[in-house]
Amino acid sequence: MKPVKIGICGLGTVGSGTFNVIARNQREINARAGCDIIIEQVGARRDNPACDTSNSNVSRDVFDVVKNPNVDIVVELIGGTSIAKDLVLQAIENGKHVVTANKALIAEFGNEIFAAAEKKGVTVAFEAAVAGGIPIIKALREGLAGNKIEWLAGIINGTGNFILTEMRDKGRDFADVLQEAQDLGYAEADPTFDVEGIDAAHKLVILSSIAFGMPLQFDKVFTEGISKIEPQDVDFAEELGYSIKHLGITRQVDNGVELRVHPTMIPKKRLIANVDGVMNAVLVKGDAVGPTLYYGAGAGAEPTASSVIADIVDLARSFSGASENRVSHLGFNNDALQELTILPIEECETAYYLRMQADDKPGVLSQVTTILSESGISIEAVIQKEQHGSAQVPLILLTNRAIEKQLLQAAELIEALDAISGSVTHIRVETLA
After folding, report:
1. Do 266 and 410 fall into the same domain?
2. Which of these, 78, 120, 196, 418, is most buried using a 10 Å CB contact count?
3. 151: domain range?
4. Can you give the pTM of this predicted structure?
5. Do 11 and 124 belong to one domain?
6. How far apart are CA 56 and CA 39, in angstroms?
7. pLDDT score of 323
8. Is residue 375 a part of any domain in this protein?
């Protein structure tokens, strides 16, 4: 089989990692691909001291790689959604396959990109776009192909998981740990994408589309960050037997699909509750296989490069076959994709943790529980803390499952009580059973 020539666009963290792993593991990679994988050209605005490209064909214009007639696969690792989109679409137009680690690009423009690729008979591979080195795309699209996926839940942003782990283990507050995450390079100078759930939302949209066979719908995902989580909530969760994790959750129900990213309390006995630090994990429930958990490094030069190179090898193996025999981008044939309704968060159902400041006097708990009962919400557990010398005490309730709209209406009535000060904090609870 003739060599497969690739062009790497971008020599940042992932680009340099990909270059180095290919150079180091050349023999194993070629043996698995059944042909020689050759780095034909590198496109990068500047050199990266982390990799030695002195013997490589390097261009300062990434579009030179796309125009190179000898390049079979364009590996897009520049990030962003403007230049990267133009680069990928031009590569497709030139009849080249594409490998990318760009979750924002796929989540926001994947439908357009996949349509262009199908028209030209080429493939866009994106294993590295979700959960770094964890092969979750391949698992969902191929390994679980015999299952009806019921739901999945993932810790798919390492920065947020690091922050919540530190808050739990060391009692630190959010702002303090965020600063450390920035100092360690886990979080950007502008951490919005990580801590407000946008990064996780990009990844969840991709996973949901593959799980349920529907077009990508990034504009429909609900996102809520972790910046309002307080140390006391972390402590109360522990007392109740739960951990707080920033989860991406998608579930197919009778009237549509839930697609949401938010802080979630989950039982400490669940394996995913014990995924700490910057690690990622995705829990998938299939009707035939039951629950399966995928765990590993969700970011970093070489873990992500591992997924990039896996896509390159898969593409190289498929070169001798007809394009119609390749695995579809979202795992379902395009004519089988369904336009499923994405439920607004108000229509989603889950259990809730509620915390409020209540007057320390008889009858307050009865008033609160009456409002919840009249709203159709039952209570699973109650914690009422004594604070000597204080006129108010924290009141914590754990509810059974309820529609969010009902919960929010009940919370509004509770906040209007004279005996309740301030707003009611609510955190969604999932058993993931």
Report:
1. no
2. 78
3. 138-297
4. 0.95
5. yes
6. 8
7. 67
8. yes
